[in-house]
UniProtKB/TrEMBL annotation, chain A:
Protein name: Phosphoenolpyruvate synthase
Catalytic activity: pyruvate + ATP + H2O = phosphoenolpyruvate + AMP + phosphate + 2 H(+)
Pathway assigned to this chain's UniProt record: Carbohydrate biosynthesis; gluconeogenesis
Top-level taxon of the source organism: Bacteria
PANTHER family: PHOSPHOENOLPYRUVATE SYNTHASE
Automatic annotation (TrEMBL), chain B:
Top-level taxon of the source organism: Bacteria
A Pfam family this chain is assigned to: PEP-utilizers
Residues annotated as domain PEP-utilising enzyme mobile: 534-605
Protein name: PEP-utilizing enzyme, mobile region
Gene3D superfamilies in alphabetical order: Phosphohistidine domain (3.50.30.10)
Organism, scientific name: Aromatoleum bremense
Length: 374, 612
């Protein structure tokens, strides 16, 4: 573990010195992971693939580097990390707490504040909303990559409004790079801390009437010919966290018709509290608990989007989506996140057909086995 | 799964039907006096073949059951030697047919059968097209023979030529002989029926099976779609009606053709016009052989053909003329069907992960496409064309029997077994030869009256879907197809049957046969005659549909049937026209009434009754 982090040793220092410190998602793509982290790169990739994603922008790793450099805390951070044992959680938490407090108390360089404020203002104008509510989320350079799951290790803050709050939460996202868990994980996996940078995504909040997740492969059977959609009222958190049993739909990927539908009793949903402007959990009114939380047309459009995303990436995907209640139908369904599905994709499925070559051999061997009556 | 023991059901004879067993062949009975057979019957799983026999069998109509009992079993067991299974055994309880595939239990024997099957069935698969061409020649010759077969009336005195030409045979002998020939032609035709059928089913079933292994959630309708768009004879009769509709418009006689509901009136009106006569000539030309199409499945004498009731094809022609006047295309969208088939096949194929699986998929799909035309076309030749002619030849036999006082009405003949008819004809012929009254004139009419009562009681009885001990696996291809239909639907049917009051049912389930969801007014049609009352935009609810119902599909917006799988006529036609279908619901014609508002979801197979 290096004790002194010099700017020259940082990977992003090698980035072109004209690389932007703040950039819009449209400017990102799958090759920009080193600049904007996995999450923002993937959002940019989706936008450029023609998928509707809530607009936003990123503070880049170059911006992050400038902040760390000008905050003048690098040596101190390195010192606090030096000699830690990844199994000693108490010590880790202590160091994490100190580092995070240090980061969150430092102001952003004026240049970065201006860039973020301007980008935020433009975003608000674009969304026709004063002080547009945004999600501020960390986008680490080592997350969402095949083979390394850093998902959920860094923080996301929902329903943030106003420049000051945005900037404050940008700092909190940056500091989440130094949560106890994140530090321990890097040490355990042998990733040097100085090799990991962070970018922060600032994205328009979808004011979700309904949201959820979908897979372009059946999570239970590995069937690649279906898209499986989970949906609940409100933001997608209730679905992602497993807080409710969502409505479940199995859609035929080839023809896009709904082949199975299960409407569950949905007792809780997440929405914004208009007084505090915070995301809160609310009980679903009894009369809505058992009705379908998404229309058939919306299911069809989601499935079409999922199919497009899978085609773009060339592999089964795990997707988060939301339907915005402030926008008209036809332009209100958004993809919030898409990442390669890992469980089935790493498993080679065979039917046992390899042993028979001709149709005749297969027919005979099937006749010998017969059909099981269940 | 647990089902009743056959002998227990048999012991509970429906009051008033005592002695019903004599209406059917003796070997169809469950027995108690033969310990060995009794034990075999107890150890065996018998399931009710409701797909073919939704109603109890008339004694005469048992002929086709006997015919396939023989033909399927011999091909399985003696000709191709399907390794793990012999033939399919049959029994009858209260007029309903129960069947059971007979397994080969000794693994060594199965092993010995494999090379035979590979050689023999392999020969058929490899030479399918050439053998099928040969089949068509045999089949058409058999039908030609049937059409030429005369059922003579017995004359008071034989023609002089019998003497002058030294013939030495009487009309009585020819009546007996031609009845035998008629029956033998029927049995022969069913030999051909099964020549390819089980091999075809096997190719089809295991293509489906393999595709379901690759894609566990794939709807069966999508698999059948991969072999759609292949020209089959099933649609030919309907195409003839469309051509006649177009010609009526071209000849400007469409107003006359649509002026009356009854064929006799239309024909009389047309005969007064020169153009009308040209159209009538085209109509007559289309009748052979294409109006030899049954308005049911063709399995029963009650299924009459278009030729028997020309009002049915007339109604179809009128429907098409109406569509043409509206400027609507009446041609089947074959190009679109094929394009969608190719798109779906390619997209599924692309999702297959391994090269081996993709290769196997291609092989099996190729095989399924090769066998598909036979699997469909044999129906036209056997169940429609041959049977339509056959039933009417039997009616000619009945006319002779009526003439001699053996039966009161032509339609009474169906209450006699075919061997009883032969016996009765001997009675007629010997009495005719001798110049006395046949004995049967006092015995048969009374027996037939009694049998009519028995049949009525049978119809009121609900056959259990299965009896005996269920096996774990079924290997016989035909039974897999049948079981596939019955097994999945048994629970749903049973659930509905358990509800005492059909009015309390608001939802029915069946096979998702063609996707999409619509709401509309129900029209329950039990026969091809009923479809004449269909109104534009209604939902057709029928026991089953046959190719002769095709014109009805130009009017409706969804179809629901009691009987049938995803390969059934209603399923295939609805997929072509892109309208929802739910088939094999078991009880929809009993639960749904004309005028109800229904929601039909052809993707999930659910029918909801919205308003009664």
């Amino acid at each position: 573990m290096g004790s002194v982090i010099s700017a020259a040793a940082l990977p992003w220092a090698a980035l072109d010195s004209v690389a932007p410190k703040v950039c819009s998602f449209e400017e990102c793509g799958k090759d920009s992971v080193q600049l904007v982290g996995g999450k923002c790169a993937s959002l940019g990739e989706l936008i450029n693939a023609g998928v509707r994603v809530p607009p936003g922008f990123a503070l880049t790793t170059r911006g992050y580097a400038q902040f760390m450099r000008e905050a003048g805390i690098q040596a101190e951070v390195a010192g606090l990390l030096d000699g830690l044992d990844h199994e000693d959680m108490d010590k880790l938490e202590e160091a994490s707490h100190a580092i995070r407090e240090m980061i969150e108390s430092r102001p952003l360089p004026i240049e970065l504040e201006d860039l973020i404020a301007e980008a935020y203002r433009k975003l608000s104008v674009r969304c026709y909303l004063p002080a547009v509510p945004v999600a501020v989320r960390s986008s680490a350079t080592a997350e969402d990559l095949p083979g390394a799951s850093f998902a959920g290790q860094q923080d996301t803050y929902l329903w943030i409004r106003g420049v000051d709050d945005v900037i404050h939460h940008v700092r909190r996202c940056i500091s989440s790079l130094y949560s106890g868990r994140a530090i321990a994980y890097r040490m355990k996996m042998g990733f040097p801390h100085e090799q990991v940078a962070i970018s922060v995504g600032i994205q328009k909040m979808a004011n979700a009437y309904t949201a959820g997740v979908m897979f372009t492969v059946h999570p239970a059977t590995g069937d690649r010919s279906v898209i499986v959609i989970d949906a609940n009222f409100g933001f997608g958190e209730s679905v992602v966290s497993g807080e409710v049993t969502p409505d479940n739909f199995v859609v035929n990927k080839i023809t896009l018709d709904i082949i199975e539908r299960t409407i569950s009793t949905k007792e809780i949903c997440h929405t914004v509290d208009l007084k505090t402007q915070k995301s809160i959990a609310l009980p679903v009114p009894a009369e809505r608990q058992n009705i379908q939380s998404i229309t058939d047309d919306e299911i069809g459009e989601l499935a079409l989007m999922a199919k497009k995303i899978e085609k773009h990436y060339g592999r089964p995907m795990d997707i988060e989506w939301a339907i915005d209640k402030n926008l008209p139908a036809g332009g209100n369904i958004f993809i919030l996140q898409a990442r390669p599905e890992t469980i089935w994709s790493n498993r080679q499925r065979t039917t046992g057909a390899a042993s028979s070559t001709s149709a005749m051999d297969y027919i005979v061997s099937s006749l010998l086995t017969g059909k099981r009556l269940t | 799964m647990k089902f009743p023991v056959p002998h227990d059901i048999k012991a509970k004879t429906i009051p008033g039907t005592e002695g019903w067993e004599r209406m059917y062949p003796y070997q169809y009975q469950f027995v108690t006096d033969d310990p060995q057979r009794n034990q075999y019957e107890k150890d065996t799983f018998w399931f009710y073949d409701g797909l073919h026999y939704p109603e109890p069998l008339y004694p005469f109509d048992t002929i086709w059951d006997e015919a396939w009992y023989l033909a399927l079993s011999q091909f399985n067991n003696r000709i191709f030697q399907v390794p793990p299974v012999r033939g399919v055994d049959h029994r009858i309880i209260n007029g309903y047919v129960y069947i059971s595939p007979v397994p080969v239990k000794d693994p060594a024997e199965i092993g010995e059968r494999v090379p035979n099957f590979m050689e023999r069935a392999g020969f058929y698969y490899k030479n399918w097209d050439a053998l099928e061409a040969k089949w068509k020649v045999k089949m058409e010759a058999t039908i030609a023979e049937l059409e030429a077969l005369e059922i003579p009336r017995l004359p008071d005195i034989e023609p002089l030529s019998v003497v002058t030409e030294g013939i030495g045979e009487s009309t009585g002998y020819h009546l007996l002989k031609n009845y035998d020939d008629l029956i033998n032609l029927g049995i022969k035709c069913w030999q051909y029926h099964f020549e390819f059928l089980n091999l075809g089913y096997a190719a089809y079933v295991f293509f489906m099976d393999f595709t379901q292994k690759l894609f566990p959630s794939i709807p069966l309708q999508r698999i059948t779609q991969m072999v759609s768009g292949i020209d089959v004879l099933m649609f030919r009769s309907d195409d003839e009606l469309k051509a006649l509709a177009k010609q009526a418009v071209t000849l400007e006689v469409d107003d006359i053709v649509t002026a009356h509901r009854d064929w006799a009136d239309v024909k009389a009106a047309l005969a007064k016009h020169r153009q009308g006569n040209a159209w009538l000539a085209a109509f007559e030309k289309a009748r052979y052989p294409w109006f030899n199409i049954s308005s049911g499945t063709g399995w029963f004498h009650t299924d009459r053909s278009w030729n028997d009731n020309l009002n049915i094809p007339l109604d179809g022609i009128q429907t098409y003329i109406g569509k043409l006047r509206e400027g609507v295309s009446i041609d089947r969208p074959m190009e679109a069907v094929r394009a969608e088939r190719d798109r779906i096949t390619a997209e599924y194929r692309e999702l297959i992960d391994s090269d081996e699986d993709r290769k196997q998929f291609d092989e099996l799909l190729g095989c399924a496409k090769t066998v598909f035309p036979y699997v469909e076309n044999h129906l036209f030749y056997v169940e429609h064309w041959f049977h339509s002619v056959f039933w009417n030849k039997i009616r000619e036999v009945a006319a002779v029997m009526k003439e001699h006082g053996m039966i009161a009405d032509v339609e009474d003949i169906w209450y006699l077994r075919r061997d009883e008819i032969k016996q009765a004809l001997w009675d007629v012929v010997t009495a005719w030869a001798t110049g006395v009254t046949p004995r049967g004139t006092t015995t048969w009419p009374a027996e037939i009256e009694w049998r009519k009562g028995v049949m009525q009681k049978f119809r009121e009885w609900n056959p259990p879907p299965a009896i005996g001990v269920a096996p774990e696996v079924i290997q016989e291809p035909f039974t897999i197809v049948l079981w596939g239909v019955t097994n999945n639907s048994l629970a749903d049917w049973a659930a509905v049957q358990d509800i005492g009051d059909p009015d309390s049912i608001t939802e029915l389930k069946g096979f998702a046969a063609s996707p999409g969801t619509v709401e509309g007014r129900a029209r329950v049609c039990r026969s091809a005659e009923d479809i004449r009352d269909l109104q534009e935009g209604e939902i057709l609810v029928a026991p089953t549909t046959s190719p002769s119902w095709a014109p009805a599909f130009a009017k409706i917006k969804a179809c629901v049937t009691d009987v049938g799988g995803v390969m059934s006529h209603a399923a295939i036609v609805c997929r072509e026209y892109g309208m929802p279908a739910v088939v094999g619901t078991g009880v929809s014609t009993r639960v749904i009434r004309t005028g109800m508002t229904l929601r039909v979801d052809g993707s999930s197979g659910v029918i909801s009754i919205i308003t009664a």
